Amino acid sequence: EGVARGGDGPAAAEGVAVTMMDKSPPKAELAAAIKDFDIVGIRSKTQVTERVLDEGNRLLSVGAFCIGTNQIRTTYANNRGIPAFNAPFSNTRSVAELILAEIVMLSRHLGDRSREVHEGRWTKSAAGAHEVRGRTLGIVGYGHIGSQLGVLAEAFGMRVVATERGDAGDL
Hints:
The protein has helices at residues 9-13, 27-33, 50-55, 74-79, 92-107, 110-118, 144-155, and strands spanning 39-42, 61-64, 84-86, 136-140, 159-163. The protein is of the alpha/beta class. The strands form two sheets. A three-stranded parallel sheet has the order 1-2-3. The two termini are 41 Å apart.
């Protein structure tokens, strides 16, 4: 499912046969292919259903290389003795960087400026645009992504105020 080429190198170097797919296979195709797999690694779009798990007679484990495991029927897999896991930190920094980029874009009205340029207009004005330095960023949920966002925002000179979701009633 679009995993970077070369990711199979370490396993192949150890003599492990690796099958990589360019996109998420349909459920029926995955169910047919899984018969030959010992371990399956997926991304967000691939659905590991009960039917898919039933076909995986040799299956030892299922790994989701993304934040959650909602695309894997984890209870069903565990009941069959197949542990399912995820890689919660795999996209954390990327998501935090994208959020901060959006903050900068919004504070500089870059969406409006982009639209104007595409319409053939050049507005050379900073009216209403602001630096993020010195601004306050409130983060509700200071988990993996929230804490990374806080680090990046502070590096930009922002003041960061954060709370956990359970503390939100105290805001």
